[in-house]
TrEMBL record:
Function: Associates with the EF-Tu.GDP complex and induces the exchange of GDP to GTP. It remains bound to the aminoacyl-tRNA.EF-Tu.GTP complex up to the GTP hydrolysis stage on the ribosome.
Protein name (record): Elongation factor Ts
Family matches, as Pfam families: EF_TS (PF00889)
Subcellular localization, as worded in the UniProt entry: Cytoplasm
Family matches, as Gene3D superfamilies: 1.10.286.20, DNA helicase RuvA subunit, C-terminal domain, Elongation factor Ts, dimerisation domain
Residue ranges of the region described as Involved in Mg(2+) ion dislocation from EF-Tu: 81-84
GO cellular component, one term: cytoplasm
Main location: cytoplasm
A GO molecular function held by the record: translation elongation factor activity
Keywords for this protein: Cytoplasm, Elongation factor, Protein biosynthesis
Sequence similarity: Belongs to the EF-Ts family.
Length: 195
């Protein structure tokens, strides 16, 4: 009994999910903490998907200047209500996104936002590299497609591995924050300055 209570407490602290949600997830996973964590993440993604159609017009602009004063970031993060925009969890999320942008240098928010000319330039480079491998054309096409997908994921903020927890992406962090705060949250735009 005590170990179940400890598991519930641990999962609540990690996921910020409600006690009954954590308890149900543990029951579904037959007491396995990792399984319960997976169940909670899947439910959180479903909740976030439902909320994604709601308009996010409130929010804040977070500024981050790196300790050496050579890198600065402004990021706009929106939510549905001013109430949520003033919460410490929302502000912490915006701060973490700004810190991530300073560290990882994404060029856009989502992969579909990558400029066509940058995508075409990278594709030409990858095509040339793969052609030099001497593989059959069908395999070359698959290699190019895989490398382009990987490159796009590395360039877009939401698909990059989160700098503080590399086992999750910034998009996962966004989903977790949506689940925690119960509102649609959108990273609208950012700008990064570097000397």
């Amino acid at each position: 009994m005590a170990s179940t209570i400890e598991k519930i407490k641990q999962l609540r602290e990690e996921t910020a999910a409600g006690m009954m949600d954590v308890k149900r997830a543990l029951e579904e996973s037959e007491g396995d903490v990792d399984g319960a964590r997976k169940v909670l993440r899947e439910r959180g993604q479903a909740i976030a998907a439902k909320k994604s159609s709601r308009e996010a017009t409130e929010g804040l602009i977070e500024a981050y200047v790196h300790f050496n004063g050579r890198v600065g970031v402004l990021v706009e993060v929106n939510c549905e209500t001013d109430f949520v925009a003033r919460t410490p969890d929302f502000k912490e999320f915006a701060r973490n996104v700004a810190l991530h942008v300073a560290s990882m240098k994404p060029i856009c928010v989502a992969p579909e936002d990558i400029p066509a000319d940058a995508r075409e330039e990278e594709k030409q480079i990858v095509d040339k590299q793969v052609a030099e491998m001497g593989k059959p054309e069908k395999i070359q096409a698959q290699i190019v497609e895989g490398r382009m997908r990987k490159w796009e994921a590395e360039q877009a903020l939401l698909t990059q591995p989160y700098v503080k927890e590399t086992d999750k992406t910034v998009g996962d962090l966004l989903q977790d924050t949506i689940q925690k705060l119960g509102e649609n949250i959108v990273v609208r735009r950012f700008v990064r300055y570097e000397l």
